Amino acid sequence: MEILTLGNELLRQKAERIPDIDEDTKKIAEELIETMHKGKGIGLAGPQVGLMKRIFAVHVEKDVPRIFINPSIVETSQELVKYEEGCLSVPGVWAEVSRPKTVQIQAWNEKGRPFTLTAEGILARAILHEYDHLEGMLFLDRLPALKRSKLIAKFEKVKAKHLAG
């Protein structure tokens, strides 16, 4: 799987539900985890690899890799926490983003089993970040306009340097 970067239109589209969790879905889940690990990320969503399906992987330190299929956010805390975020689709760019401290999410795993998870800290942040990808949003969209444009310009410079290099 190849990770798409800022500028690719697929990153701005809403992902579609997965109608059946089958062997293909299991294979996609494995590939998502493998690609996320190769990229040294803690999360990766279907749209980031050009797969417009509602699936994402998350693997934070001291936890197991987790797959979320057709997730829905049940509840988030009112308390917000700022934390520096980056994204495999916006390499080289980091910014402080405010997100809810906790999240409760319902989804299905790669075996087709439904589950509900309440998460906090970095796991909650990763879940919310990846869920945004399913909605066609990037972490940059959660920043004030001026900061967002400065970071997009920075990304363009890094990308140009990388392509030249």
Shape: globular
Largest sheet: 5 strands, antiparallel
According to DSSP, the number of beta strands is 7
- Report the end-to-end length measured between terminal Cα atoms: 23 Å
Task: Output the radius of gyration.
Answer: 15 Å
CATH fold node name = Peptide Deformylase
Average residue-wise pLDDT = 96
SSE string, helices as H and strands as E: HEEEEEEEHH
CATH architecture: Alpha-Beta Complex
Structural class: alpha+beta
User: Please, what is the CATH homologous superfamily?
Assistant: Peptide deformylase
Kindly give the count of domains.
1
Strand order of the largest sheet: 1-2-3-6-7
Determine the fraction of residues in helical runs and give it as a percent range: 25-40%
Class in CATH?
Alpha Beta
Tell me the β content.
25-35%
Q: So how many helices?
A: 3
Model regions low in confidence, pLDDT < 50 over at least 5 residues: none
How would you explain this protein's 3D organization?
The chain is of the alpha+beta class and 165 residues long. The chain has a single domain (9-164), classed as Peptide Deformylase (Alpha-Beta Complex). Helices cover 30% and strands 27% of the residues. It has three helices and seven strands, in the order αβββββββαα. It has helices spanning 23-38, 121-134, 145-164; strands at 43-45, 55-58, 66-76, 80-85, 95-100, 102-108, 114-120. A five-stranded antiparallel sheet has the order 1-2-3-6-7. It has a two-stranded antiparallel ribbon with strand order 4-5. A hairpin with a 7-residue loop joins β2 (55-58) and β3 (66-76). The model has no long low-confidence stretch (mean pLDDT 96).
